[in-house]
Amino acid sequence: MSNVLVTGGAGYIGSHACKALKAAGFTPVTYDNLVTGWKDSVKFGPFEQGELSDRSRLDAVFAQYQPVAVMHFAALSQVGEAMSEPGRYWRNNVEGSLTLIEAATAAGCLNFVFSSTCATYGEHDNVVLDEGTPQEPLNAYGASKRAVEDILRDFGAAYGLKSVIFRYFNVAGADPEGEVGEHHRPETHLIPVMLEAIDGKRPALTINGTDYDTPDGTCIRDYVHVMDLVDAHVLGLKWLQDGKESRVFNLGTGKGFSVREVIDASGAVTNREVPYSEGPRRAGDATKLVSGSTRAAAELGWTPDRSTMPQMIADAWRWHQNGHYEG
Ligand code: UDP
């Protein structure tokens, strides 16, 4: 069986990726420091606890498992936190990734799938966001991810490292079979925060700004189901194993939803009131982030058919009600 090293495999997206990898016949080896991840979510292959910054530990893991590829999810990923603690983002996301990339290259593991983000694009009025759009991030989260993209390109030129870079739009939903789901502590992402408010686990959702230049004044995002997202990663891995060139792919559906539209959809799916209040803008937020690319569909054959808003909310709601991690 082929091993794939999955950094962040105990986290939200990484744990779903491990499930998809196992279903596709790979053995996912989770490498995670459990700072934001959950040991309970490592269900589909071996677990190695470690830091990205620990080169000797990484070398030992590469030597033990001889992975055919790396899928690199481990990162700090909150826009608000990135604005207030940029140093942590640069150190963890860039320095940590650099150490990992050096270890992979030294071990001769030259296939690398990387979680990047639409936050690398920044604010572009009336521009279709495709893979050629200039990357002008508004926050240290996006900037740190852009820097890792640059490192991957340089290592590609110097050492033949092949990469598939996925620029995610907003990831939502959960495994419909309920084995893994989204669980951040504290939770900051829109849909889970909203479900916690609906369920009385927090007093209300605060809308971060209602004076944006959008039809209803709230930010617009493109939401993609986590199961569709991780399917793309398996396709990206096969792309690399087929010997194809390094490539960047947006992962979004091309449909934008405002915060108010997500609130309305959540109320409809759960048949419950969404308690919310209106607050100020969150620093670092772009007005609108919607993918304008069909590259992943055309070249990878990716079909994000679970990524409808009602389905994403229904799957997240089911997980919210039934799933949990003990720690
Ligand atoms: N958002 C909000 N209230 C919240 C959480 C998020 O209004 O409690 C907004 C946020 O400002 C952004 C959108 O919802 O416009 C999506 O935010 P999220 O943090 O889920 O993802 P991001 O776009 O930062 O990756």
From TrEMBL:
Broad enzyme group: isomerase
Subunit and partners: Homodimer.
Superkingdom: Bacteria
Residues of the NAD-dependent epimerase/dehydratase domain: 4-252
Molecular function per GO: UDP-glucose 4-epimerase activity
Keyword S-adenosyl-L-methionine attached: no
Entry cofactors: NAD(+)
Family listed: Belongs to the NAD(P)-dependent epimerase/dehydratase family.
Swiss-Prot/TrEMBL GO biological process terms: galactose catabolic process via UDP-galactose, Leloir pathway
Name of a matching Pfam family: Epimerase
Catalysed reactions listed for this entry: UDP-alpha-D-glucose = UDP-alpha-D-galactose
InterPro entries: Epimerase_deHydtase, NAD(P)-bd_dom_sf, UDP_G4E
Pathway linked to the protein: Carbohydrate metabolism; galactose metabolism
Keyword annotations: Carbohydrate metabolism, Isomerase, NAD
Protein name in the entry: UDP-glucose 4-epimerase
EC number: 5.1.3.2
